[in-house]
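EI: anyone free to look at a 306-residue chain?
SC: sure, send it
EI:
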Amino acid sequence: MSQVTPEAPTGQQFTIAHGPFEATVVEVGGGLRSFTRDGVPVVAGYAEAEECRSGRGQQLMPWPNRIRDGKYDFGGESEQLSITEVPRHNASHGLVRWSLWELLEHERDSVTVRYRLHPQPGWPHHLDLRTTYVLDDTGLIVTPAARNVGSGPAPFGYGAHPYLSIGSLLIDDVEVHVPASTWLATDDRMLPTETHPVDGTRYDFRDGGRVGSEILDTAYTDIERDADGMWRCRVQSDEFGSVTLWADAAFPWLQVFTGAAHLGKGEPGIAVEPMSCPADAFNSGTSLVVLEPGEEWTGTWGIHPG
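SC: here you go
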């Protein structure tokens, strides 16, 4: 009897390289499994033989974060999505992170994957989704896009879920820099309640600071941008230097999550998540993108080590 070689839990693996950098994108969810410099992790990913846990490197479309009870109204219709975060009774992190993405282009230093999101319960729309990953001298550049190929308008939001690596350090020894002046409070279901200035609060990391024993799972907005129009969120320590996640104007929100590092779930890292909108935007309308037929949304974010 012939032996069957088991497939990786995340399907096909698409590896790219440039100089000291190497990254692997996976078929399941079209997400980022690994990104290294000289073999040292820049993101806290997972091995080829492992399943993706804690959302590591996943793409969150057509909404990031949560939708209350999976319910929303759009275009005069009431929709009910499947509840995927059962303990909190929310629809969580979109519809595509466990789907099989198709390879569109694969060069030595770049890869593009795509997925056609068809109508399904709670989602009566057609979107063509596409994400390109490129390595250059600066690190990793990611460009997602969504085009409405349906006959009516469609709500849309995007988020990515990379974990910036902190190596073998304890999170108490790591400093974060979050250049945002507003944080979003949530209830016990991690759903938004109201925004607050960070001034004088434990959420103020504009000048950098240690998270310590605090567990952050916090969305920020009113993010200060540099002269080139990008915002930059940095994780650093004296031991391993720094890793910066940057994003363009398509991302007025970011989320910082330290829970996985505190709880020892997988390789230590701090999730810095570029988002086009906050949780429950399908209901609040906050920063929600509405794509008309034929219209496309796109944005660019990236990770720069050192």
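EI: The chain has two helices and 28 strands.
SC: 👍
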